[in-house]
Amino acid sequence: MDVGDFGAEQGHGPAILGRDREMSRITQLVGAADGNGPKVLVLTGEPGVGKSTLVDRAATQAAHRGRRVLWVRGCEGEQDLGFAGVHQLLSPVLSGVDRLPARQRDALRHAFGMDQADGSPTTDPLLIRTAVLTLLSDTAAERPLLIAVDDAQWLDVGSLDVLAFVARRLDGEPTALLLAAREEAVPVRFDRDFPHLTAGPLDRAAAGLLLDQQPQPPRGRGRSQILEQAAGNPLALIELARAFARDPGRNDLGPSGSLPLTDRLEHLFTADLPTLPPATRRALLLVAAAGTAQLSDVPDAGGPEVWEPAERAGLVRVDGGQVRLRHPLVRSAVYQAASFAERREVHLILAATLAHEPDRRAWHLAEAALGPDEDVARALAESAERLQHRGGHAAAATALERAAELTPDPQERARRLLAAATSAMYAGHPQWVGEIAGRVGGLTVDPQLLAEASLRAGWSLAVTLRHDDSLAFLLPVAESMATHAPALALNALSTAATPAYNSGDPRHRHDIQRINGLITRQPDETDRVWPQAAVRPFTDRQQTLKSLHHAVDTLPHGSLTGLVPLGGAAWILDETDEAVRLLDQAMHQLRRAATAGANCTVAQALALAHFESGAWSAAQAAAEEALWTATEAGADNVMVGSPLLQATLRAARGDSAGARAQVDDAVRGRDLRKSRSLYVRHRHALALAALAEGDHETAYGQLRRAFTRDARPATVHYHASLYCLADLAAAAVRAGQADDARAVLHAAEKTLEQHRSARLAAIVHRASALLSDPGDAESRFRAATGDPAGASWPFEHALAHLDFAEWLRRRRRTAEARPLLGTALDIFERLDARPWAERTAAELRATGVAVAVPAVHDVLADLTPQELQIAELAAEGLTNRDIGTRLFLSHRTIGFHLHKIFPKLGITGRAQLRDVLDRVRRPD
Fold first, then answer.
1. Model confidence over 718-750: pLDDT tens digits?
2. Is the CB of residue 31 less than 8 Å from the CB of residue 80?
3. Is residue 452 scored above 90 in pLDDT?
4. What does the CA dihedral 860, 866, 869, 873 come to, rounded to 10 degrees?
5. Angle, helices 774-786/794-810, rounded to nearest 10 degrees
6. Which of 297, 301, 655, 845, CA to CA, is 20 to 30 A from 795?
7. Cα–Cα distance, 728 to 915 (Å, whole number)
8. Among 720, 724, 774, 760, which residue's Cα sits nearest to residue 744?
């Protein structure tokens, strides 16, 4: 919205009244394109506050400073067309598409419909996003770039996904991004992860100065009325001053009633329309309905004589074959001021001229529909199929929603709503899935369709903290379909196992176990493995393992529906290496589809498995991926869980203060009492931070909260709590709480069968050794450290070695302690678990061994997880483009990171990377 060029000339244009603070931040952003500071800024504010003016000024300033500016303005008319916004953004540089790597070039051409549909598989959405990033990076290589995004609330979902992807990868690029959106409608991808700047109302002094600069400044009572009604909104001030000038004697300058300011403004815009010639009003309505600024795309748009009255009225600006509305609300006002018959007429005209663009034509026919119309509904459904083929699942869901509204038959309407919910699920928008699925119930009594709707609704909640609500949908589906549709029942039961695990409530576990017994046996029982493992991990473990191994052996190649639940089951059962393998394959599959909601949950499970297996850099990378996809999907379970894992990693590496801060941020405003798995992980992260600092009393207090305070302590979470036993015992013996810890341990042991995993057996043995009498401790320590399988969980394995060595040294058995300490030190150094490496090194020195931590380890610890990943790939001989393709970054970003990596490692080029990393992996 352009509220006028007002104020004294300063810098690159007239000063904007009352916006010194905003312009200071914007100036910093423009400078950050090829300098220091945040490279993304989200500008918010109510309609009419002047966001567009600020974006325009940023573009002008950037151009004066030699930057290139690429624009995209959201348009309501193109909100349902996949990738329309990205196409607008890249239009000036589309000639560079053919210079992209082949797969990226083909993906982008396919997304923009530049190639004919050939029946090829759906384009990888991450490949599309990477192609856009690469093209922008290539553009910025010529000169620094400012990406200016206005009215982001009206961009299509696919374009928002791309922009968010780009925004997270600008580090090292000579590029900055300014995105403006209405305050109440900031796209979810930008609502919390980037710096925000709110353009608030003008103060009364600035508002008065703005009124004084109008052609006919209001005076007297009218002036005070305008200042009061406008409430500091620049557009309202200008428009109300114009209204006052038309009728200075009018007392009521605005519409009656206490309507929000935006509604008053939309009504106000219509005041100019009746005075315009009919041809001008019709041309305005055509442009408003077309949703495009390009006059050549609007039939019967008329010549200059048609547009001159609208320009004189200040509603539009016509230049270079484009008609630009003064503000998006002008479009709304023009459209709403027209009768339905007038709107219908222009939509039919537009549809008739768009025979060559079936997707846009379908939408205009839908807007012109007088009521349910199966032909139009079918055209939208066919449009949705084409959108799905191009990877535009969000746009497809929107089209199917509208198709359902136009479908006469209730049964078919229900089916199309379910198809819309499925597309929204594939687009990774669980909240939207729930909204769509909730409308199916009033359309059909078909139990199968109702069950499928409940399954979608339950899925939409399964990634949140609303575990009980999710299960309230899923469990009845599983039970009611147990014999009539056993495949659907098993699908619902498998989905339900996740919120049941996260909840930890024994009632839900009992229900899943009971319903599992009701479902008719199937030739393929793969779907039963995850529910059985999730709710009964320590009961019939041997049988569940047998089922898991059989299911993995018979799993069809690339079966995503099998990889995810089986990977989760393997993680629950402490088959950690198998879990990493399966979940990694699942992530590879998911990255090729637009399933952000699924991505975040699988990425989090993979991150946990990587952490336990000692691949901490990979765990960090997976946790970061889980978090940003969860933020986009609204999956608050992962939005808490991923930072908790990252905090645990911080604590293990010695950043206790950072770990506590990250934990506080993750749980702030969250009630974890009904999410017991996260509650236990929350306490474990804080305990590890305390242990790293040697604060055993605090650590014990945190770990003790993983168990109840009953006379016979029970686990808070039936699975997660048990893995705290050894750390609880270690803290207890140093905090004077050994008796209390023994009670916890003895109660826990009674809940476990003899056939425990090697991991859990080692944990229980270590806890028992620490809390046992001296006569029994040694055998327990040897059991905790002697099983070679324990090396699969290196951090826990090293802790057991350290505890045993300390026990031996206190008994002056230093010769026996030394090899144990050596093993522990090697593991701690490899993991970069600095507090424990320092403690182990001190113990070794006390036994008479000279210890010098290799300097390269300290240097390597300075690398971020992403930098380490890039260094490792570069050491393997991959080019910057190869690495960028793998990590979905531009090759220039990879080069930027390498230039930061080399001095940190004390080297000058990539040829030295392999030697440095080899010395770290195999220190002398």
1. 999 999 999 999 999 999 999 999 999 999 998
2. no
3. yes
4. -120
5. 150
6. 845
7. 40
8. 724
Helix pair 340-353, 358-368: axis angle to 10 deg: 160
User: What b-and-e string marks burial along 706-739, b requiring 16 or more CB atoms within 10 Å of the CB?
Assistant: bbeeeeebebbbbbbbbbbbbbbbbbbebbebee
C-alpha 551/C-alpha 546 separation (Å) is: 9
Do 221 and 252 form a contact (C-beta atoms < 8 A)? no
- Count of residues making up the chain: 924
CA distances from 884 to 163, 873, 916 (A): 18, 10, 22
Please name every residue paired with 233 in a beta bridge, in sequence order, or none if there are none.
none
Place of tokens 């010549």: 303
Q: Is the dihedral of CA 671, 673, 675, 680 positive or negative?
A: positive
**Which helix H or strand E contains 10, and what residues bound it?**
strand 9-10
d(CA 372, CA 367): 11
Reported as a single tens digit per residue, the pLDDT across 836-894 is 999 999 999 888 887 765 444 455 667 777 788 888 888 877 888 778 777 766 776 77
Q: Residue 314 and residue 773: Cα distance in Å, rounded? A: 89
Alpha helices in 218-339, H assignment, sequence order: 220-230, 234-246, 261-269, 278-290, 304-312, 328-337
Give the integer Cα–Cα distance in Å for 887 and 172.
Answer: 15
d(CA 894, CA 137): 11
Nearest 10 degrees: Cα torsion 598, 599, 602, 608: -140
- Average confidence score pLDDT of the chain: 85
Tokens (6 digits) for 352: 């008739």
